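FAQ: What does a multi-protein file look like?

Like this. Sequence, then tokens, then the next protein.
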Amino acid sequence: MPQPPAPTPSPVLADPVRDWADSGIVALTGHADEPPLVPPGRAATRARELGERIAALTQGRVRLDGGRLLSERAAFTVHRRNGPISAGGACRLLPAADGWAAVSCARPDDPLLLGALVQAELPADPWQGVAAWLREHTGDDLAERAELLGAAAAPVRHLAVAPPRPPQLPPRPVDGLLVVDFSALWAGPLCALLLGMAGARVVKVETPTRPDGARRGHPGFYRLLHAGHRSVVLDPTTSAGRRALAELVEAADIVIEASRPRALARFGLDAHAAVAAGTTWISITAAGRSSDRIGFGDDVAASAGLVAYDNRGTPVFCGDAIADPLTGLTAAALALTAPANGSGMLWDLAMTDVVAATLDRAPAGPAPSARRQADGWVVDAADGPVPVAAPQRRQPAGQAPGSGVDTAAVLADLGIPPP
């Protein structure tokens, strides 16, 4: 399976500490009542390089600081660092019998899933029961049961993965191309946003019973990711809905999705058939298309080893769901390339591997700490102290469409009969 392209090297000598400080991630890492911490690895450097790569592939049409994209959701939500509780509050780092684990409780049904995981009826706040179960079970126990049940939970493993050596593909102009985006939350929609900024026509597809969960989040951030896109809602439980979905995929130049293959197969969608017909297919999953693991940005990043340790040996989250924007940037860089012969491509993006490739090894001790200077914080980079930047927000370029408002118009434009 093709692997993500290595980012274009920056003309400036990379300094991971400086890049972390500039990105806004340091401000989101550590305990609320203690100095910020510098995360391990070079994810902010990788994100900056990917931003430069995207600028080159689009001939400057899309020019963004990739490092700053890692923290911009927190600029909208005003989330802050909170130690072993994620900035958004839905994920926690908990001790297991043989180490640490990341467990998410973000979806309405997750308390029930976590109850099934620990084999006990849990209250609406499940954390005490989950923590008690984990203290008696290993990370392997957790991983096996979480994958079986579809819970977003995994042990912290420190998975260092060698940077991939991808095929060298030429740039692909996307101006006017049709992007069909089945994804939700942050990673896939960020990829779609960047393609839309490069000139692609983006159609967001949801189902009546599974709207994008990000619609329940901060409206300004949702608008940032979806402004200027069109919204289609189709029901895959009906034959007419499945037919319309299939024809929409057939018309697409690029498909973005973040579902397990068996879920898409139930809708009658076949990635390999679409690729054979010339489509670029971006598949974003927690651990690859061959895995049934479920994961979100915080638990995926932590499970890959992107955690910082305080001076007591307790792991804390790095940033805010950092696996999501890092994967979205990677996906956009992939979608902006294509084989010269016009054939399709299937990019199997495992978020865990995207994060792990930015890490060299497990942290050897406590993370470097920021210190006070004037009214802010500074950290020591290779060339001296640098200020710790706060997360910064971009302004949305318009309004995001309401769910399904463009269904009839989009289908009519593409000559697809309405369901």
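And here is the next protein:
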Amino acid sequence: MPAPSVRRRSLAVIAALPLLTLAACGYGSEATTDNAKEKVAAGSSKIDGLDSVKIGYFGNLTHGTALVARQQGLFQKELGATKAAYQIFNAGPSEIEALNSGSIDIGWIGPSPAINGYTKANGTNLRIIGGSASGGVKLVVNPKKIKSLEDVKGKKIATPQLGNTQDVAFLNWIADRGWKVDANTGKGDVSVVRTDNKITPDAYASGAIDGAWVPEPTASKLVAEGGKVLLDEASLWPDKKFVITNIIVRQAFLKEHPKAVEAVLKASVEANKWINANPDQAKAAANRQLEADSGKALKANVLDPAWKSIQFTDDPLAASLNTEAEHAVKAGLLEKPDLKGIYDLTILNKILKAAGDSPVDAAGLGTS
């Protein structure tokens, strides 16, 4: 019989599932703050006559650009008297739905939901307008059960969600090893267990899963529970770079309010520059925003290794997005998409040029 503490954690995992289901019914939680840096500066004016710009992001370190830009008041500074309003999401599909409905205007999001959202709307709903982050994804396993990559076969490995960015990456890795898994059911030579990142650490601790292919900070939370990093996904990519977070916008909003989009992108570029110049201060700022959003900061033994594994970049790494789409097609989760036009990097490159930085490329998937 399991020890009482293990039973309690198992029950906690089960009990959390209905709550997660209910949370998924909404778009995301509205975020409030008393951060003095987010106050509208006296004498500032509205951009494009807008009362607000609605910005979405995840409470993940891989969305560190948005966390830091908000914590440092950069969004509000660039938007002037136009209020920066926020919603926080746990899953890509709900953020895409919010974008489609107009509940948000601009969002930080992973490549798979951006691809899925774009293709399902036949290229009419969103554009990727900038990059944000690369890396920060790891395969973490129970070292007592899995000692080598070959040992993953026959085990239960979690991914955050069917068809999400990490799920597609793991399915592709499985296929490359010659193993078979039904993508939709997760059954096969490896059991792929779709588990919300919030409960993955408890699922691991209870023995419900043997490991997980997950983004930060979940990966480092598993290491803190005794897990071992078996594989860093960055090692599978050219130059160890692949897109983990993009910036998207509603096409109608981009057309009608380009100055507001430019303001948000300026804040993003400024945030990334500050992050890369001041990694320790930026890490602390991101953690303060996580605490403000969720009520709980990350402990140092999770925050420090997680932050080190993420690269913050304005480059959307478009070629890697195209490759990720090919992986989803190979897994049977996506029909071959036409991604031409998914990127519009015009405003970003204007900002980069003004700053004396090199332009970024859409890998043939731009609007022109």
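Q: Is there any per-entry metadata?
A: Some entries carry free-text notes. For the entry above: The longest strand covers residues 126-135.
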